[in-house]
Amino acid sequence: MTELTLDNPVFTAYLIASALMVLKVMGQGWMTVMRMMKVGAGYASPEDLQKGLINKAPDPSQLEINDYVERSRRMHRNDLENIPAFWIAGLLFVAAAPALWLAQGLMYGFVAARLAHAVAYATKQTHEIRATFYTIGSLIVIYMACHALVSALA
User: Fold this and answer.
1) CB-count burial class (<10 Å; 0-12, 13-18, 19+) for 153
2) CATH label of the domain that carries residue 12
3) pLDDT of residue 30
4) Is the pTM for the entire model greater than 0.70?
5) Of residues 96, 85, 108, the one with CA closest to residue 152
6) Helices (H), the chain
7) Which residues of the chain have pLDDT under 50?
8) What whole-number distance in Å separates Cα of residue 93 and Cα of residue 135?
9) Predicted local distance difference test score (pLDDT) of residue 11
């Protein structure tokens, strides 16, 4: 399949956008860990209360909800609910051979929408603001999937 090579600028756009989203997902996980370590709380599992090199003074309160940690955990969960659909729809979209300008606009638009969503979430913006960025990203993924489907049925 010639569409899935770096000689295809549409695939290159997909590769760049996808790699950025991999870094976003993985980075958010590390952000959650850093926040847990910073506050020494927000742990998720009972076994996290075992004494160790990092948790030298376990306390049951460490399992209580800590909004500073939970905010990052919710952001990570949101990424895991949305970004994999982009990876799949984006690859199908590349295989449908769209125009380069369309592919770049949609793929980089998705990246921008996810990053804006993360900033909105991290800075405690209203649900309406977060939902706006979610909606933009979601509609992009839906469009790419529909475009691929129509191309395959044509």
Assistant:
1) exposed
2) 1.20.120.550
3) 97
4) yes
5) 96
6) 9-39, 67-95, 100-122, 127-153
7) none
8) 19
9) 96
Instruction: Return the residue matching tokens 């969503």.
Output: 117
CA distance 94 to 54: 45
Who contacts 3 (Cβ-Cβ below 8 Å, separation ≥6)? 10, 11, 94, 95, 97
Look up tokens 């996290």; give the residue.
Answer: 48
For residue 11, give both structure tokens. Answer: 């695939």
Domain that includes residue 15, residue range: 2-153
- Which tens digit of pLDDT belongs to each residue from 102-137? 999 999 999 999 999 999 999 999 999 999 999 999
From CA 102, how far away is CA 43, in angstroms rounded? 43
- How many domains does the chain contain in total? 1
| CA separation for the pair 47, 128 (Å, rounded) | 37
Distance of CA 115 to the CA centre of its chain: 8
* Model pLDDT, residue 58: 81
Q: Which of 80, 100, 103 is nearest to 90 (CA)?
A: 103
